[in-house]
Design goal:
Blueprint: H1 6-33, H2 37-61
């Protein structure tokens, strides 16, 4: 196992964030299916926040964060 690179660590971080986004969306779906509409909305917001974080980190990684 060699020395980790920034690119490798970035890729792992983005994969974890994608999985977190998907998991939060699934929790929202399950709450919605159980008629817990308010909880579903909150978990959907969590999912959207993970997606926004992915976008911001991509901007940071490409040097375009303002």
């Amino acid at each position: 196992m060699g020395v980790p690179t920034i690119g490798e660590e970035y890729s792992k971080l983005m994969e974890y964030l994608r999985k977190a986004e998907e998991n939060a969306a699934m929790i929202a779906h399950l709450h919605n299916a159980n008629d817990h509409r308010e909880m579903a909305k909150l978990w959907l917001k969590v999912s959207e926040n993970f997606k926004q974080l992915q976008h911001q980190l991509t901007q940071l990684a490409t040097g375009r964060l303002q």
